[in-house]
Amino acid sequence: MLEDIQPLLSGITNDAARLISEQTGMPADIDEEEFKQLIDAQMQRIQKVNDSTKGEIKSAILIASALDSDEDRPGMLKAALTAIFMNLISKKQRVIAEHEAQTAYNAGVYFGAKQVGAACKTWIAVKDARTRAEHRLLDGNTVGLGDSFNAAGQSIRFPGDPLSPPSMTINCRCRLKFSLD
């Protein structure tokens, strides 16, 4: 699965940077080391999700093995594993894909803006009940392109930044906008 995801994230990031280049008419060459650092951080974050699913499976096995009746164990284990995998297939996979694609897009805008010499960037929050209070407060904030946004004392380069704390970035749906002046 991870081998399939990495090229997709790289493609989304590169496409967004290319879009910035086309919009501005300026070349956009992404810093390869910074790009690699971003993709590696995203892949590590995805691996942690896989590790949490492994933890759920281990817990289900432990609970089933703790049952007194040998007859109840297989049925309980089957039900628990089915629930874990149904949740993974129906919700987690979609949420992870949406989040990582959004992060890759914002990273591409960030890298593209850096390469075309943008002066500043602006945080654009989704305005609904699911938006973190910290991100609502960032909505419309503009900072220098080389500066970070400050959300509850945490530095974030762009919405979804995998180098920032997960508590500030996981499931972020905000977008990054930039300006040349």
> How many helical elements?
5
In terms of DSSP E residues, the strand content is 5-15%
Separation, N- and C-terminal Cα atoms: 42 Å
How much is the average pLDDT? 81
- Note poorly predicted spans: none
Main sheet characteristics: 3 strands, antiparallel
Spatial sequence of strands, sheet with the most strands: 2-1-5
- The helix fraction, in percent, is 55-70%
Based on helices, strands and strand pairing, what is the structural class?
A: mainly alpha
Please give the number of β-strands.
5
Give the SSE string: HHHEHEEEHE
What form results from the Cα inertia axes? elongated
Cα-atom Rg, whole angstroms? 20 Å
SSE blueprint:
Layout: H1 2-24, H2 32-65, H3 72-115, E1 120-124, H4 133-138, E2 142-144, E3 149-151, E4 154-156, H5 166-169, E5 175-179
Antiparallel strand pairs: 1-2, 1-5, 3-4
What does the model show?
- The model has no long low-confidence stretch (mean pLDDT 81).
- A three-stranded antiparallel β-sheet has the order 2-1-5.
- Helix 1 (2-24) packs antiparallel against helix 2 (32-65), helix 1 runs parallel beside helix 3 (72-115) and helix 2 (32-65) packs antiparallel against helix 3.
- The chain has five helices and five strands; from the N terminus they run αααβαβββαβ.
- A hairpin with a 2-residue loop joins strand 3 (149-151) and strand 4.
- It is mainly alpha-helical.
- The chain is elongated, with a radius of gyration of 20 Å.
- The relative contact order is 0.16.
